[in-house]
Amino acid sequence: MTGSAPRGPRITRRLIRSCIALAAAISLTVGVAACGLQSGGALPLQVKPGSITVQPDLDGQTVTVGSKDFTEQVILGYILGFSLSAAGANVRDLTNIQGSNSARDAMAAGQVDVTIEYTGTGWINYLGNEQPIPDPTKQFEAVRDEDLKKNGIVWVNPAPMDNTYALAVNQENAQKTGVSTLSEYAALVKKDPAAATTCVETEFRSRQDGFPGMAAKYGFDPAQVQMQILQTGIIYQAIANGNCVFGEVFTTDGRIKALNLNVLEDDKQFFPHYNAAVSMRQDVDEQFPSIAKITAPVMAKLTSEEITELNRQVDVEGREPADVARDWLVKNGFVTV
Hints:
InterPro entries: ABC_Gly_betaine_transp_sub-bd. By secondary structure, the chain is of the alpha/beta class.
């Protein structure tokens, strides 16, 4: 290891993010609207305009940016936050909210103004649909139209990146089990459940676009599976070490390549498309129309390859999400420092 000094600021920033997320969760629990509290802090880094310039409707206005609590979401939250800051907004940082439903509730409660959300999550989790739409563009359009009509939530600027769920296995266990598709995984569960130990995180275990829905699609009883519940970040190493034969992964996670894991083919195309898109309440969109304008070119640059590399820099190299996000925006000319 090359010195421990640089780790201090990284730990401090992560502690701050955790405290902010905890404050948000507490405030939502006790009733934010009733007490009028606001959560969130300043962005950890400063940026200046680049190709994103100061916008009259955003200049000096406070906008709260939220995200969920896993690496990619925090990176996307900072990409969004720095973009708005370059446009002149006073950005409040509420990244790192625990869980999809909590992040959505924070927006509904007015704690969060804008996030980057996934189309599959919107369609299945928030809108309650059971069948995904195979075409990514039509999936986005369906989420956009239904969420606006039912909930007053605006979706704009879908990115090319598609971070869907998958199961993965290490090379040794792939050879040992002969499993390369989810159909073969289902057959193994039925034949020899002990050979198909599977690690998942809590949310995937209960989501209809997660393990229960996958089991129904592929025709096996999820209760047969010998399952371990782990934190998302631990699962990848547990798969690599063989502590779990199979495990839940996100397809844009940089650790898949770094740990040489095999992703099982979703041969029945169960998992929805999870294209990232900017999501905000209708009142926020109407007050700040420039949010859609300035984020359009940023989102267009976010391919699966690009976000996988950014995730890798955090999860493999140990860099801070805010540093990674800002560097990417600078490299692409969106902001300056």
